Amino acid sequence: xxxxxxxxxxxxGKKGFISDGAILIDGEVIKQIGTTEDLKNxxxxxxxxxxxxxxxxxxxxxxxxxxxxxxxxGMALKGEPPKTFGEILKKLWWKLDKNLTTKEEIYxxxxxxxxxxIKTGTTAILDHHASFGLIxxxxxxxxxxxxxxxxxxxxxxxxxxxxGKEARDASIRENVRFIRKKQAxxxxxxxxxxxxxxxxxxSLTLSDETLEIAKGEADSLGVGFHIHVAxxxxxxxxxxxxxxxxxxxRLQKFGIxxxxxxxxxxxxxNEKEIDILKETNTMVVHxxxxxxxxxxxxxxxxxxxxxxxxxxxxxxxxxxxxxxxVKVAYVLPKLHYGDPRVxxxxxxxxxxxxxxxxxxxxxxxxxxxxxxxxFADIIILDYFPPTPFNENNAFYHLxxxxxxxxxxxxxxxxxxxxxxHKLTEINEEEIMAKAREVSKKFWEKMENE
Length: 449
Description:
single chain; Urease, subunit C, domain 1; TIM Barrel; five-stranded parallel sheet; 20% strand
């Protein structure tokens, strides 16, 4: 057992903000919340973690991530820079995922952002993986990186037709295999850190046949999908050409949408499509920084909220930091809509409430909240508020006062994975040195293609 005491606790739950409290952790679960004195007296043998009146809050949840994208960091592309989203996909991302051919490349490209996530307070992610140079067993490699670092994650493989039928079939098999593996996790002490869903790229690289096959497999497994939706205009143009309808309508036709499906981006959609997302209870994930970087547009977030669509927030591999992502999500609608009044409540709800509801679809205990019975995924920050702090203004303290480097301690599944800014489960310096070595060879492979 562990007690986090002398803590200023932002629970994000019914208890709101506790100015001086303590949390009892039993195994991987939050067992009790009370005063430091009371819990220490009741459980004198528990390990005591003195928060020294730092801010304690739930770890951040990243609702859409691409761990495999790491080796693109600092990479120069040959020729003219891509000027459209379609060119970005072809010149960078599809070339990169096809050249991921070894276990080392997949492992180290995953473990680096997992470490960076821990350091910036992210305790759980929904990852979307692609490595068309090595498909079979690739999710096991990602899972090993997740377990080695101690991060919570739901994984999937990016099904696509873009590299031919054989690769398409292999990507479907990898999803099915890994989902079955996680569903069979029923031992006396089942592993609770990882989960699975069914990954697909986007309508523009998915044939009717592939959508039908994937739907059949997902139905037999009782899962939904993790799929990019209308991220760029290319997706809409392709869907209209293939089917005569827009992206959301096409996906609905094949039964891809639903309350277990994550629709990522949803930028180029109209009111009818927004209504379909609502009617099917499909979850949407907003990725503001990535969208801006790819110049694909701004998702109609205010319209999603008006319709009551469950909308979360992710980073899309652009950054491991949810601090960074939510700060952009906060300001972007103000600029886009020309209205300084918008963006605050929406970005707060995405980060503090909706991501928690999304993750509840994949894990059997609550995350993103400090309450009895929830997973013990907790961060301690070097933040001592200079102005009054409570549950009503905590989000604005985060936006205007908190920074990545304030994360002092990260606890996931009841295990301390970083304490006093130092990782406890893995050697960061060794990992980064090895990643540089592996990525150098990977870059050479990319250059020679």
